[in-house]
Design a protein that fits this description.
The protein has 388 residues and is α/β, with parallel strands linked by helices. Helix content is 41%, strand content 14%. Helix 11 links the parallel strand 8 (212-215) and strand 9. The longest helix has 16 residues, at 362-377. The chain is globular, with a radius of gyration of 21 Å. It starts with 7 loop residues before the first helix and ends in an 11-residue tail after the last helix. Bound molecules: 1,3-dihydroxyacetonephosphate and iron/sulfur cluster. Iron/sulfur cluster is lined by residues 40, 76, 102-104, 152, 241-243, 305, 331, 333-334.
Length: 388
């Protein structure tokens, strides 16, 4: 679905008036509405969120108000899809700007994943599917691959993993989800973020060089030999987050030089060379908890999205908090949820018109729900561990 331009009146509203009108529309909708805001949203959006959280927490929060008619998701498209999958049909999920996607999620599509699955089946000797559709594989030990998708993926990829015995994960529970998968199969096909897959495998004690290969969807066998695929434990999709890819090992070393005693804290979507150097790595909620609970006077170099880092600075005036990358790096797609879009969407809802509803088709929803329920049934890790 394409985002149509906003009606003229919304493009000329000033910040204070937009905020006032958002509050008024929220008040008019009352308990019919819940607004969810991802931590990477700007402050002008977060101030109107009933719940703020990372991907894992917001997937849980989406279910907290079954009486609400509308869930307005201030995040990106895959998050709104997940909320639609996890909530009953009478609840309508709205994404204020349909152009708010995720460049990482776009790096894997269902055709590429099906093609990868078919090729892996040929190399690893799975039974050939009789009807051309790849049925769930319950292969013998040594040949089975369990697909795990990061929640940053389209709903049909979540359905794929649900149907093929796999699970969704977020950065909060990736180690638990991958361990769960390896308890059930011999290998993991992890998509679309190679970095989260690699860091998670390393956290679990696997060697990136020996045990992991990268699957390039544009090359036969993902750019690997059959022998290498047979030997690997982790088949990591060649995808990445354009925000977290900006953080580097050199930046961490420079921060240590400039601020002796600094704690380097990064998201596991960053490259493993940086994650290894960092003192801590973990999901967005984990990053917030680490800084919030730290002793006054401590110094934190944080490798994640700038809206979150700026908010951490403001909310922790007794500590020094700065972004690891001196050039600021917002997530440009999260940023598309401008307050004027939120204002427009809420005012249309209050006027009785549902705009920008995100609807996952029933056939996709069925298996995607299986995969998301599996994810939610796996307890998140209490704390992310250091990657050696
Ligand atoms: P979390 O919300 O799981 O920390 O992931 C960060 C992110 O990149 C969201 O798109
Ligand atoms: Fe996607 Fe990265 Fe933006 Fe998250 S921060 S929505 S992974 S592009």
């Amino acid at each position: 679905m394409r985002q149509l331009p906003l009606p003229e009146e919304y493009t000329t509203l000033d910040e204070a008036e937009t905020s006032r009108r958002i509050s008024a529309a929220k008040a008019a909708l009352g308990s019919r509405l819940v607004v969810l805001g991802h931590h990477y949203q700007r402050d002008e959006i977060i101030q109107h969120a009933d719940y703020r959280g990372d991907s894992y927490k917001l997937a849980q929060d989406a279910r907290k108000h079954p009486e609400a008619e509308f869930i307005v998701f201030c995040g990106v498209h895959f998050m709104a899809e997940s909320a639609d999958i996890l909530t009953p049909d009478h609840q309508k999920v709205v994404l204020p700007n349909l152009a708010a996607g995720c460049s990482m999620a776009d790096m894997a599509n269902i055709f590429q994943v099906r093609a990868a699955w078919r090729q892996l089946g040929e190399v690893l000797g799975w039974p050939t599917p009789a009807n051309g559709t790849n049925r769930p594989v319950v292969a013998e030990k040594g040949a089975s691959v369990i697909p795990v998708t990061y929640i940053n993926s389209a709903a049909n990829l979540k359905a794929f993993v649900g149907e093929h015995g796999g699970t969704v994960c977020t950065s909060t529970n990736a180690p638990v989800a991958v361990k769960w998968a390896l308890d059930r199969g011999d290998k993991v096909l992890f998509f679309p973020d190679q970095h989260l897959g690699r860091n998670t495998g390393a956290t679990l004690g696997y060697d990136p060089e020996r045990d992991m290969v990268v699957w390039d969807p544009f090359k036969p066998l993902g750019g690997n030999t059959a022998d290498r695929l047979k030997q690997a434990k982790f088949i990591l999709w060649k995808g990445h987050c354009s925000v977290h890819a900006r953080f580097t090992l050199e930046q961490a070393l420079a921060a240590r030089e400039a601020h002796p005693g600094v704690k380097v804290l990064v998201h596991p979507e960053c490259d493993i060379s940086l994650v290894r150097e960092a003192d801590y790595n973990g999901s967005t909620e984990y990053i917030i908890r680490m800084v919030t609970e730290a002793a006054p006077g401590t110094v934190w170099a944080v490798g994640t999205e700038i809206n979150l880092v700026s908010r951490l600075q403001k909310e922790n005036p007794d500590k020094t908090v700065f972004c690891l990358d001196p050039q600021i790096c917002p997530c440009s797609t999260m940023y598309r949820i401008h307050p004027s879009f939120l204002c427009w969407a809420l005012e249309r809802l209050a006027a009785g018109e549902v705009v920008n509803q995100v609807v996952v088709p029933d056939d996709v929803k069925k298996w995607a729900l299986v995969a998301l329920e599996r994810m939610l049934s796996l307890a998140p890790v209490a704390a992310a561990s250091h990657v050696d």
